[in-house]
């Protein structure tokens, strides 16, 4: 899976789970795409592959630790002008959570949502 494919699938998955009032789905996708574009290329290939391969999932404790580490690492790379680091972390956390949610449920970025 290429970086562009990974990003597109991640944007689609987040957009399914996120509803921003007053915005169309296309506008939401554009905003999510911008944020994912800032973040996705900083996710190491090993983490992307881990998420894609984690068919049996990982436990909650592992997810929590991994989420905190990834948010911290990504926050060192992502700089949104005029926004403090703590607010950036709050914006990054849902992206990281969406990636890790796939591993938790043994999901796939390209498969339809399973309820």
How is this structure best described in words?
This protein has 115 residues and is an all-alpha fold. It has one domain. It is built from five helices and no strands. Helix 1 packs across helix 2 (25-40), helix 3 (45-53) runs parallel beside helix 5 (85-105) and helix 4 packs antiparallel against helix 5 (85-105). The model has no long low-confidence stretch (mean pLDDT 79).
Count of DSSP H/I helices: 5
Order of helices and strands: HHHHH
Distance between the termini: 24 Å
The low-confidence parts are: none
Largest sheet: none
What would you call the structural class?
mainly alpha
How large a portion of the residues is in β-strands, by DSSP E?
A: under 5%
Rg over CA atoms: 14 Å
Number of domains: 1
Give the secondary structure arrangement, pairings included.
Layout: H1 3-17, H2 25-40, H3 45-53, H4 60-77, H5 85-105
Compact overview of the structure:
This protein is mainly alpha-helical and 115 residues long. The protein has five helices and no strands.
Q: What labels would you give this structure?
A:
115 residues, mainly alpha, 5 helices, 0% strand
């Amino acid at each position: 899976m290429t970086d562009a494919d990974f990003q597109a699938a991640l944007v689609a998955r987040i957009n399914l789970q996120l509803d921003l009032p007053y915005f169309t789905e296309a506008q939401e996708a554009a905003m999510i795409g911008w944020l994912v574009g800032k973040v996705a290329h900083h996710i190491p290939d090993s983490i992307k592959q881990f998420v894609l391969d984690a068919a049996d999932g990982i436990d909650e404790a592992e997810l929590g630790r991994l989420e905190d580490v990834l948010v911290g690492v990504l926050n060192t790379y992502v700089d949104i002008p005029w926004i403090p680091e703590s607010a950036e972390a709050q914006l990054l956390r849902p992206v990281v959570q969406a990636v890790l949610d796939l591993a938790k449920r043994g999901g796939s970025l390209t498969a339809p949502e399973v309820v």
